[in-house]
Amino acid sequence: MNLETHWNNIFEKTEDKKLGCWENDTSQTLKFLKDLDIYSNKNIFLAGAGTSILVDEIIKMSSNLILNDISDVALEKLKNRLKNFENIEFFQQDLSKNFKTKDIDIWIDRAVLHFLLDEKDIENYFENLKINLKKGGYVLFAQFRKGGATTCASLDIKQYDLEEFSKRLKDDFELIKNEEYDYINPFGNKKEYIYVLYKKIK
């Protein structure tokens, strides 16, 4: 399946608030970010930004945003919504393919990693993270946790737990905080997530 086509179809045909991944309340993510220094001139990378309102919340923190998605339709919607804001880069990229962007201070992923199923794609993703995130920078993951959902948006997903993250990040990263979280989507269905925050120390 071509993931770019899949997600373009979803964003073209579905109203934002009817997306299965839509969140009206971003407080869980913001809770993990509140103690980080993101009010100064930091580069924040939002992986799989889609049309999330988390973008609007982070803009209020006056940081430089790099909004990533595999879907050019989603990014075009964001461009139209955010046309009055500066310091935003729109970056269409499959994160399982090699890339280099400006050095990143904070990498946030609530929407990409769990859709990567091929081991090589997963390895490439983590290699991209390590290359693009500054030493001393942070990565926040919110992914489907083990024992929970097995599909999302008609796609199979990979489940994660703390052990899996630690294995992937190795000793290059230090765990700062983790928490299990149950998200209720717009259709009233519960989705079990794990939130983890790591600091890059090497």
Automatic annotation (TrEMBL):
Keywords: Methyltransferase, Transferase. It holds the Pfam family Methyltransf_31. Residues 47-180 form the Methyltransferase domain. It comes from the Bacteria. The keyword Methyltransferase applies. The keyword Transferase applies. One of its GO terms (biological process) is methylation. GO terms for molecular function: methyltransferase activity. This is Methyltransferase type 12. It comes from Arcobacter ellisii. The lineage of its organism: Bacteria, Pseudomonadati, Campylobacterota, Epsilonproteobacteria, Campylobacterales.
